[in-house]
Amino acid sequence: METNFAGKTAIVTGAGQGIGYEICKQLLARGATVYLNDIDELLALHAADSLKDYGGQCIPVPGDSSDHMFIERTVDEIVRQTGHLDIAIANAGITLFGEFLTYPAESLFKVLQLNLAGTFFLAQHAARQMKEQPQGGKILFLSSVTGNQAHKNLVAYGMSKGGIQMLAKSLVAELSPFKITVNTVAPGATATERTKDDNAYENTWSKITPLGRAANPQDIAHAALFLVSDAASHITGQTLIVDGGWTSVSPPPY
């Protein structure tokens, strides 16, 4: 996909590695200015430095994207520096496994605070800026196949990801008059830094994914870039599942 993002400003949360990092890389390679967020300051700084030769400008913004005050300050600073915010991608998320009957309140609140509240407030603060821009803007959420298909020991996570997809649908009614689109990418099993040393992970998912392999970050980033590009200007409120066909047949990974 040869999409030009020259002159566009974007923020991507949770982008120190994995899918978020790859989205930043591809936006930069197509000319965007990208604000790269991660809660791990050293990871954010290293990631931005490693992307400095990819075309556009990459600015690290370390901080907790589940903190709505941090998100508000960050969006305000982006607008102060660039004058606009064209793309906001809520990628940050946390997965905490556990059986439903014994799932601790602390884990539930952590999952909801980052996955749902963090996504909600990035969209809110980004949209407040985008509604003032003649061109509007594009907001993208990262969900999961667990928001569409039950997965054992991921009840809280799946609930949060299903909520993210409903948030995208709900915001169509609120934000379409301002030329703001809101969509979601729902990845399936994806091989990232967290799974690269786990041979069982890739072997298992390769066997039960119809296309014969787990996704890689590039697969997810390609879908994300499409939905925040001008090519998707008439698409909003949708969830694009990128899972190699797994949700069509849904064999469990255990």
CATH superfamily: NAD(P)-binding Rossmann-like Domain
Q: Compute the separation of the termini in Å.
A: 36 Å
The beta-strand count equals 7
Strand order of the largest sheet: 3-2-1-4-5-6-7
The main pleated sheet reads as: 7 strands, parallel
CATH-derived topology: Rossmann fold
- Our Rg estimate from Cα atoms comes to 17 Å
What is the subunit arrangement here? Answer: single chain
Strand percentage, roughly? Answer: 5-15%
Low-pLDDT residue intervals, each spanning 5 or more residues:
none
**According to CATH, what is the class?**
Alpha Beta
Helix and strand run: EHEHEHEHEHEHHEH
What are the main properties of this structure?
8 helices, alpha/beta, single chain, seven-stranded parallel β-sheet, Rossmann fold, 254 residues
